[in-house]
Amino acid sequence: MMFDLPDTNTLYEALVARDASYDGQAYVGVTSTGIFCRLTCPARKPKSENCQFYSSVGACIDAGFRPCKRCHPLAPMAEADPVVDRLLQALEERPGYRWSEGDMAAMGLDASTVRRSFKRHFGMTFLEMARQRRLRDGFTALSAGDPVIAAQIDAGFESSSAFRAAFSRLIGKPPGQFNRDALLQADWIETPLGSLIAVSCQHALHLLEFIDRKALPRELAKLQKSSNCGIGFGRPEPTEQVAEELEQFFAGENASFSTPLALHGTEFEQQVWRALQEIPAGGTRSYSQLAQNIGRPSAVRAVARANGTNQLALIVPCHRVLGADGSLTGYGGGLWRKQRLIEIEQSYRRAI
């Protein structure tokens, strides 16, 4: 539910007082500078006549304001959580370690607090995230042609059955069912926002999803069924190309993607996905605007559903669609990623 903003005078008083109770629920756009901030921003306060208040970062961006570099209103909330930040750093230092709740207790952390914090920010617990990290090592070993037992060891699993079960939960099928000679091949791509699974044939990219998306196993099964062939491990040319383009994107060098795509959807869904690709980096649209752009103004709900079935994250930029009120609406990769992607793309918008 959206937060109903109080009157402007009340919000301005909260801004002057740096009232933390409004943090994350109200933002101020300063017309004299073109910047928007949290109400708790330490910068010198603007005059009241230069302030416009909004209930979401999306509304600020849509109004043409850019984020403040002092209070970082677009920074994911996880970065402001010391518990989350500490454990993420620990995971980076020991990626192959088999973390347990006992390890958290040894660090002086309460396991239930950690669980709630990670669920709130990432939709998964810290232990699930650490397990995913270890599975990535196993996936990489399989992609390199190693046998399942070697991949199991690389992933830090003592039991082959536990490795197969964990792999099946993540990918939707056990490692032994992946066909090395399949036309479609899967590989792992690292990004600053987390790991992606890319599935390509020799000619086109078929799927690109964040590894922690809950719909990933279902999407892989659907892709395998629609293509009438198995999925193997490997890195065809389209995967190589999109990995390079993603690296350029996150480095702020280029927001254009030219990797050839295979769109698996109905004619209407493909029409929506092509319209998404026409939204420039740094720009946003509402579902109703997207429906109007394809000449189907009454099909707003159908457009939203098509947006949600997109299987090519970032390349078909469904993260550029906001709610009618400018809010950061649902995103399969997590709202924190959607927020961060919009922040990254502001540099491309300013460069236009």
List descriptors.
single chain; 352 residues; alpha/beta; DNA Methylphosphotriester Repair Domain; Arc Repressor Mutant, subunit A; four-stranded mixed β-sheet; 10 strands; 43% helix; globular; phosphoprotein; DNA-binding
Compact summary:
The protein is an alpha/beta fold. It has helices spanning 8-17, 57-62, 82-93, 101-106, 111-122, 126-143, 148-154, 160-171, 216-227, 237-250, 267-277, 287-293, 300-308, 335-351, and strands at 27-30, 35-38, 51-54, 66-67, 184-191, 194-200, 205-210, 231-233, 285-286, 321-322.
Structure description:
- With 352 residues, the protein is of the alpha/beta class.
- Among the domains are: 60 residues, DNA Methylphosphotriester Repair Domain (3-Layer(aba) Sandwich); 101 residues, Arc Repressor Mutant, subunit A, CATH 1.10.10; 85 residues, Winged helix-like DNA-binding domain superfamily/Winged helix DNA-binding domain (Arc Repressor Mutant, subunit A, Orthogonal Bundle).
- Helix content is 43%, strand content 12%.
- The chain has a four-stranded mixed β-sheet.
- Strand 6 and strand 7 form a beta hairpin.
- About 1% of the residues have low confidence.
- InterPro entries: Ada-like_dom_sf, Ada_DNA_repair_Zn-bd, Bifunct_regulatory_prot_Ada, HTH_AraC, MethylDNA_cys_MeTrfase_AS, MethylDNA_cys_MeTrfase_DNA-bd, MethylDNA_cys_MeTrfase_DNAb, MethylG_MeTrfase_N.
- This is methylated-DNA--[protein]-cysteine S-methyltransferase.
- It is an enzyme of class 2 (transferase).
